[in-house]
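Attaching the record inline, Q. Sequence:
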Amino acid sequence: MTQQRLGRGPLRTPDPDPPTGPDDGGSPPARFVGWLGGLGCLAAGYAVFQFLFGVLPDSLGGEAARYLVAGVSGVGTGVAAWLAAALLRARASAAAATAGPRDPAALGTGALAPGPGPLPEVFAAAYETLVAQVSVVDDPDAGRLTGWSHSLGEPGRPTPATTDPALHRPTPVGTAYGLHTMLDLGMPDGRLSTGDLVETLWRLRLPGGGWSARSQGAEARPEVTALVLGALARAGASRQLLAAEVDRCTGAFTRQLDRPGRESTHVVTTVLRGLLRAAPDHEIVPRLHEALVDGAISDDRRDHLRCWSYRLGPPYGPPSPLHTALAVIALDRAARVLGESAAARAAREDGVRWLLACRDAPHHSCLDLENLREEVRRPRTDDPARHEVLNVRHFTASWVARALLTPGALEAARRDGLMTEWRERLDGAISAVWAARTDGIWIWGRGDSTELRRPMWMTYQGLSALRAHAVWMYQPDRPAVPRHH
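Structure, as predicted:
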């Protein structure tokens, strides 16, 4: 899909004062009066003058009286025609200002097309693909598992439960993101059961409790555990049922036991988002919030505004749009739950201003939207001389779009007079999100290789960004543009 189409279609952020369009003429009387006004006041008045001068009788007091009556009538008719035309133009302008542009060239191809726009089609395609590629595996130890692996269509790994290479054993990460996605899509039919996905996540729990990614082995890790707990809480799991796993997750997430995790912006924001869903009143939540605020750094290349890097402690590393977006989202959500100090609000709003200060262009392909990869390296507990490595890929455009769509970001942009920059950066991020999909599934290119992957997390993040943008754009107080058939 070309960028021109993306810019004109339903992804463009609407202006608060849409431009007016030409009047189409309206009713037959309105068209007649408009035509009459188009002749000009003098022409209409002269026509009336000539008509009356020719039909008035000579007995009306002489020729001078006939000239006087005809002249006054002609002037009155001309003034009336001018006023009528001016009134119709004023009404047409007011109607156009309310309904928005009516010129198809100004609206783009999607605005006048019958039926729904492309976004419902993307959601429907995503749902059909996820339903078609869900794995149902009977595991001899865990029982029946229903869910997804890390990526759609990846090569199968034979196990005692999945000897068929066409089957992919569900993983905690893939199934948690799949559950999030299904909840976003609304589960329109019964081909997939939320209960089956929830039960699968519980069955995938490690023997000692908690969850981990495939590359992390048999030891639970807080970022994966918090991701799963957040999905379970969103699906309706009770606080009492989640409490034991929350305690295991938070008990191991200390500087003494997991220093690399506590210094990672990605890990801290992931845990904070998950706990805000699963255990918002837990004592660790305000501590993580404070650590995130304290981890902000100043960037002299962007007016010394505060932002975030991949680390929350020295050595910090360079400023990062991706990690700044992660921090803005987590801080905004925490502010709604915990409240917010002046220092926390200042740091969060500086992060928003920093994202808006990007000077690279065009904004749909600027450097701030480049996808990133990072590693989270931890010493192995069974052999501290060796490291466990978690490779994390980041869909940057999605995170930036969602950061700019937070209520706090919009509030800060309005207060600072940065709405033009906000719209430009948001339009660019959403266009980049839209361009990365094929139908309803998002694709991650593997470097210089021609092999492509379709990670579950990327599809969830893409759909989540488009859904948040669509909700923000919904303005029921504006009349719909009339459709032409």
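The beta strands are 135-139, 143-147, 297-299, 305-307, 372-379, 387-394, 437-438, 441-442, 444-445, 452-453. The first strand starts at residue 135 and ends at 139.

More tomorrow.
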